[in-house]
Amino acid sequence: MITDWLQGIGTILGVPGAIAAFILLFIKDKDKQSQINKLILIADELKKQTNEFELQTQQMREQNSIFKEQLDLLYSIQSGNKDQQEKLIELKKKELKSKNRPIFKWEEGNSGPKYINVKIKNVGEVARLLEFYEIGNGELIFVTPKGTEVAKNNFFQLEAEYSGKENIHNIDTLIEILLEDAVGNKYRQKFNIRGSKAEILPIEEVRDNNKD
């Protein structure tokens, strides 16, 4: 009997200690989760900055390559090679396109289960958004107005209502925008969207066979 009584007291005294240990473990887990959330935010911000740097570096490399080709052609023309003049004209056109090309990057998002709302920044030159397409099931109704003009270092909201059965955060949605730069060149820009985040795919020039 005395042994059972002592064991009972020990059990009772052990309960607060177990509860305290559980609370401490819970607090530690919350602290860890808070730290993980902070690291995720930092990683997202570093990814945005890295993507922007890569886009700008790619544009600089392209312009440097064009400049080098121009110098080589000018030297060839001055040396008496007249056949290079046409190539120089083409390079000038290429340079003009490169200098006026829009460059987009994902900034942030606030999408819900049945709508897309992501903020996109244009770090390149001015762009006019002509048409919006969903590449897939056609379950989006676009809200962003056609003809929206996005200046350099400005933003636009890519918004669309979703009529599908899935939660928009659980699926990948491919959106394409037909756009035009300041000098009339047209491009197709694709965005792979999952929830509030957007992966921006390489921009594609729309070739116009009627142009010289």
Plain-language structure description:
Helices cover 44% and strands 29% of the residues. The strands form two sheets. Strands 3, 5, 7, 8, 9 and 10 form a six-stranded antiparallel beta sheet that branches. The protein has a four-stranded antiparallel beta sheet with strand order 1-2-6-4. It is α+β, with helices and mostly antiparallel strands and 212 residues long.
Q: What order do the helices and strands come in, and which of them pair?
A:
Layout lengths: L1 H77 L6 H16 L3 E6 L5 E8 L4 E9 L4 E3 L6 E2 L3 E9 L10 E9 L4 E9 L2 E4 L3 E2 L7
Antiparallel strand pairs: 1-2, 2-6, 3-5, 3-7, 4-6, 7-8, 8-9, 8-10
Helix pairs in contact: 1-2
Compact summary:
The chain is of the alpha+beta class and 212 residues long. 44% of the residues lie in helices and 29% in strands.
Q: Quote the distance from N terminus to C terminus.
A: 105 Å
Gyration radius from CA atoms, angstroms = 28 Å
Averaged pLDDT: 78
Q: Secondary-structure element sequence? A: HHEEEEEEEEEE
Bulk shape? globular
Largest sheet: 6 strands, antiparallel
The helicity comes to 40-55%
Count of DSSP helices? Answer: 2
User: Could you name the ranges where pLDDT drops below 50 across 5 or more consecutive residues?
Assistant: 2-13
Q: How many β-strand stretches?
A: 10
State which percent range the strand residues make up.
25-35%
Structural class: alpha+beta
From the structure above, extract its key features.
single chain; 212 residues; alpha+beta; 10 strands; 29% strand; globular; disordered N terminus
